[in-house]
Write a structure and sequence with these properties.
With 194 residues, the protein is mostly helical. Helix content is 76%, strand content 0%. It starts with a helix and ends in a 15-residue tail after the last helix.
């Protein structure tokens, strides 16, 4: 059974590395099309994803490919979705990075996260990053004379979306971990010990 587990781990690592390669290859296209924010998100995602294999000096020590595929979803929402979903895509991107970090902590370190803490960490990280982005937009608007922020009402709805997306990502990821054989100690819904 250990040999089978090792084969599955290597196969999953290959799929994860293929996803990392796709994201890495898409970064120059994003820069060419002027999507610098999304190129930065993709670069950050690649950097965070390669930390475990670099730290372990083993290319098979990789995040679950499903987690990486989920983390890529904001790029697809932004590229192919309607412009009305841009704010949600940004919140989803930030939540994805937070989720990847939480999964790395639980999978590759001795850190154990309480269910409420992991969900709260993903949601608060999302809200904080969206808040910081709003501050950057506000000052860019004042200094450069642009109108990045449409209205205060729109800004508040961005915060509501960020909170909802952050909590939703935390809960959805726990459902995934409960239904899969991913070896983590995250138990966001409080289902008990593994």
């Amino acid at each position: 059974m250990a040999a089978f587990d090792a084969l599955v781990r290597k196969r999953d690592a290959r799929v994860a590395w293929a996803l990392v390669a796709v994201v890495t290859a898409s970064i120059p296209a994003m820069v060419a099309f002027g999507a610098l924010l999304w190129a930065g998100f993709a670069t950050l995602l690649v950097a965070v994803a390669v930390v475990p294999p670099l730290a372990a000096r083993d290319s098979s020590v990789m995040l679950p490919w499903e987690t990486l595929l989920f983390a890529l979803s904001p790029i697809f929402v932004r590229a192919f979705g309607p412009p009305a979903l841009d704010g949600v895509a940004l919140s989803l991107a930030v939540s994805s990075i937070a989720l990847v970090l939480v999964v790395e902590l639980a999978t590759f370190t001795s850190a154990r996260l309480a269910p409420w803490f992991a969900v709260t960490l993903v949601a608060l990280t999302t809200m904080a990053a969206v808040g910081a982005w709003a501050v950057v937009q506000f000052y860019a608007g004042r200094l450069l004379g642009t109108q990045y922020l449409g209205s205060q009402n729109a800004l508040m709805w961005d915060f509501v979306a960020a909170t909802g997306v952050g909590a939703g990502v935390g809960i959805a990821s726990q459902l995934y971990f409960d239904l899969s054989a991913v070896d983590t100690d995250i138990d966001l819904l409080g289902g008990g010990d593994r």
